[in-house]
Amino acid sequence: MRRDHPDLVEIMQHGYDHTIKNKEKKGEFGGQRGYEEQYEDIRKGKELMSRLFGSDWFEAFNFPYAPYNKAAIEALQRVGYKVLNSHYNAEWKRKVFYAIGHLLGKGMMFDHHVSWNLQKYPGTTMWEISMNITFIKKYYNENTDCEFYTLDELKRQIDRYILTPYPIGLLLHHRYHVTQQSMDLIEQVFDYLRVNNVRPVTMRTIYERLESRG
After folding, report:
1. With 90 as the cut, is the pLDDT of residue 175 above it?
2. Residues contacting residue 147 through CB under 8 Å, at least 6 positions apart
């Protein structure tokens, strides 16, 4: 699929085994986990991706469940990732928080992520390219039970992000889209994006544009 549609399909790394190893804040990485153990998981994951996909995957990394810590970022840098795929929130309180973090040159403050969307992550050579909209409002369990945002709620989020200088990153958790209604929601959102002249772009393309500008 990637070879047939290189402008639409991107393959990247999402953790190693997607199990909960962070006992402090639900996640595979971060929390009490130290550098060496996280480095090993990230290294093994990258080797597996290269073995399975060869040159068809892109060296971007997204942390399962979102949490990570400074040691995890250092491990990504050592393994040689080009992009950290994280999260950007356009709420004004978050934007103020990010601005303070930028002034201080911080990637984390008070155990919270500081978004450096479309910028180099502090102390690394990695670009951060972030998601900003999720279809799911609330997860009920690890199976397929959740509450989705309504189409109108998603439209309002899209309208807000269209006004920002950032790409619109839509997060899909495929195993939760198991009903016709949830699949229809995706199609309706894509139709709305098309009407607003939003065009698809891959992580690799965004990275290459960022690299070209320096």
Report:
1. no
2. 136, 137, 138, 140
Query: Which amino acid appears at position 210 of this protein?
Result: L
Whether the CB-CB separation of 137 and 149 falls below 8 Å is answered with: yes
Across 184-202, average pLDDT: 93
146 bridge partner residues? 139
Residue 107: closest CA among 76, 128, 80: 128
Token pair in block for residue 15: 């953790």
Q: What angle, rounded to 10 degrees, do the helices at 180-195 and 151-162 form?
A: 30
- Rounded to the nearest 5 degrees, what angle is found at the Cα of 153, between the Cα atoms of 140 and 187? 85
Rounded to whole angstroms, how far apart are CA atoms 209 and 129? 12
Percent of the chain at pLDDT exceeding 90: 60
194: how many CB neighbours lie within 10 A of its CB? 11
Compute the average pLDDT of residues 26-46: 89
Give Cα separations from 2 to 38, 55, 57, 63, 128 (angstroms): 29, 11, 9, 22, 22
> Would you kindly state where each structural domain of the chain is located, as residue ranges?
1-130, 133-199
Mean predicted lDDT score pLDDT of the chain: 90
DSSP state letter for 126: P
Q: Which residues contact 110 (CB under 8 A, 6 or more apart)?
A: none
C-alpha span between 40 and 46 (Å, rounded): 10
In this predicted model, what pLDDT tens digit does every residue of 148-167 receive, in sequence order? 999 999 999 999 988 888 88
